[in-house]
Amino acid sequence: MIQRFSYSPILSTGAVVKDLPISDGAPLPFTLDGQTFTFHMDEKTRVYGLGETVRGINKRGWIYESFCTDDPNHNEGKRALYGAHNFILIDGKQKFGAFFDTPSKITFDLGYTDSDILTVTPESFALEVYIVTADSLKAVVREFRSLIGKSYLPPRWAFGYGQSRWGYVTEQDIRECADRYEKAGIPIDMIYLDIDYMDRFKDFSVSPERFPNLRKLSDDLKSRGIRLIPIIDAAVKVEEGYGVYDEGHEKGYFCKDENGEDFVVGVWPGRSVLPDFLNPEAAKWFGEKYKALTDLGIEGFWNDMNEPALFYSEKGLLHSFEEIKKMDISQLNALSFFGARDVLARLQNNDDDYKSFYHNTPSGKLRHYDVHNLYGAYMTKSAHDALEELCGEGNSLIFSRASYIGAHRWGGVWTGDNASWWGHILQSLQQMPGLNMCGFLFSGSDIGGFGSNCTRDLLLRWMSFALFTPLMRNHAAAGTRSQEAYAFGDTEAFRHIITLRYRLLPYLYDSFRYAVENDEMYFRPLRFDYEDDEVAAAVEDQLMVGDRLMIAPIYTQNAEARHVYLPEKMTQVRMHEGDISTEELNKGWHYVSVPLGDVVYFTIQDVELAEPVRNTSELD
Ligand code: MIG
pTM surpassing 0.85? Predict the structure, then answer.
């Protein structure tokens, strides 16, 4: 059952697809005091949900803030990452889900300030609250998902393996990547293009010097079964004579300042403006621009910087320079020195900037800050709607960095700028079920880590987990050490792991489709499948994948084995140097040896493996 409570919403966020009547007089499971919703938890209550956030699968104990943020330092102290996924699932004496549908900032204190008290406080009281009840955790999620609509289903080739790197700057770099994968006999379906393929970071342009013939490059690679997946950034370079800018400017499709002038920000292309994705006409117009690339044979994209990330605004920069001018260097002391440093540091993703520009929405002119969390979602919708037309229904791939619930119908998400740290393998595993609850099924992390330098053992362990994630992409930041599957000398171990991904792909893809069609989760905490098992409830580093499989990856440096909990009798499947062996194990704890390069997973019923292939074009 779903009940709807409405508190002066300023627009429809688009998250919900069911038209429910407002529940007059129904009791809220929260007490409402001012703008704060409060729920008392007993000792055993667990709290799931919140999508892409830090820390455990059970989120109790920390405080989270939904405010889409470009922050590349994902550590446990953070309250917000790139997504705003305002669904929590309370698992106590009462079991229910609560979705706080609001386009701006909202804080979830899940037993942080007071360990027994859960509070939810939207910054502005423009919201609708949906309370979802059902008789099991899985059923609550199913019911919630029926409220927000079917998840995005990408084409099957998008489930292949992809290689990315911010730092492939020429066509030659891309060809070399494809050749080295082929030479090593490692399957691959996609190579990604980061911002360097563009002409001076202009969306929908291609550098004539570095990628003189993208059509030919795309065709050559596609004949080998490899697709090129370029990036598109949210902001558009201000440059007269650049069609995208000229048209958008003339038609009034960019976000405006309080005086109705285009609001100018600084990001990769320098002076830039922000397409107004909350204006359906502007969104449609931007989406049509993808044609410049689909005309060259491109069928997939990743959308970046759409929180939106702002390095600075012109307004903020002017203000900072004035502050700095006022400073007397001879008078600097430690405190004023740090103050001076922060004058510039504060420019990035500054709330004052988010409060200084406006959208032209179907509900009228709205300040960006008040609808901030919708920006990335509506960029995804813009691309999705256009690509369905340009490439045909279900034939294209789109995923985004920023998101809000609702965008799960239009595309996937990747989890942004993680690092080559062991802790981020576990972080990524723990993000998956939360994302799935909120409808985001097509997701994955940057394998090997984005920032920092990767090592061979880290990459092997990361891949051994990520071969189960729908989006399987190795990606790294500019300036970091190479981390392709061929970058560490010996390629055999990588070949075996990635080959296993393809051998499992029919099961993984079918499980994914099933989850889409039935509003199920593809990844589930053990708790969700074994509600009567108190031991399973506390397992935070294993996941159910589809109906028949469980994973328990290694995520610590130097570990050669780990404890695995089996909530029922299962078959342990081991891949060792490409060979598969099995062993029956009883319910309970096991200490399982997993030497580097082996992959071990567990099945409840037989999961058939396909024959090895070079890429998805060779699968039946
Ligand atoms: O400010 O395009 O998360 O995947 O490689 C950094 C360069 C911009 C952030 C994305 C990352 C991408 C990078 N981008």
Answer: yes
